[in-house]
Amino acid sequence: MMTKEKIDKVIVVEGRDDTTNLKRFYELDTYETGGSSIDATDIERLKVLQERRGLVVFTDPDFQGERIRKIIMQAIPEAQHAFLKREEARPKGKGSLGVEHARYEDLQKALGHLTGGKLVSPTVTQADLITFGLILRPDSRQRREYLCEELRIGYANGKQVLKRLNMFGICVKQIEEIMKGYK
Questions:
Q1: pTM score, whole prediction
Q2: DSSP secondary structure, 77-113, as one string
Q3: Which residue numbers delimit the Toprim domain (predicted)?
C-alpha cells in the first residue's frame, strides 16, 4: 500500500474523473467545475477557498481547460497553477485530453513544481520578450510554445506570456538558459 502525499490546497479540476485519478495517489480535496460551466457562484466559492486554504488550478491542457484557467486567473490572480503537457494527458484509447488520464509520474512533475503563493516582483519586461524573440517575430509563436513547454507553465500568447512569466517568478536568466536550446 502506497502512502499518499497530502496536498493542503484545494485543487480545481474539471470533473469527477480528474478527482478520482488524483485521489488514487494523493490525499486532497478538489473543486470540480463540472467541465466548461464555470459561473459567478463557482468564482465566489473559489475566492473563499483561496482565502481559507489556497487554490491550485489544474485543468485539462485543451481549449476548455485553458478557458476555465483564464476565467479563474482573472478573478483570482493569486491562485496557483499546475500544468500537464498534452502528451501526458492523452488517453490510452480514444477520448479527449484530461487530468484523468495522467500517470503518477506526470502528476508528480506537475504538482511537485507548484510556484506562486507569495507575490513576486516582476523581473521580465516587454523588452526581454523582444530580445528573446517571443514577440514581434515571424517565429515568435513557436518560440513561446517551446519556452512555455520547457517551463511547464502552459502555452501563452504574446499578451499573456509576460504576465505568466512574472506570475511564476521566472527570471531572465532562466529564459536565457532555456532559449539556448531552441532550434
A1: 0.71
A2: TT-EE----GGGG--SSSS---GGG--HHHHHHHHHT
A3: 8-91
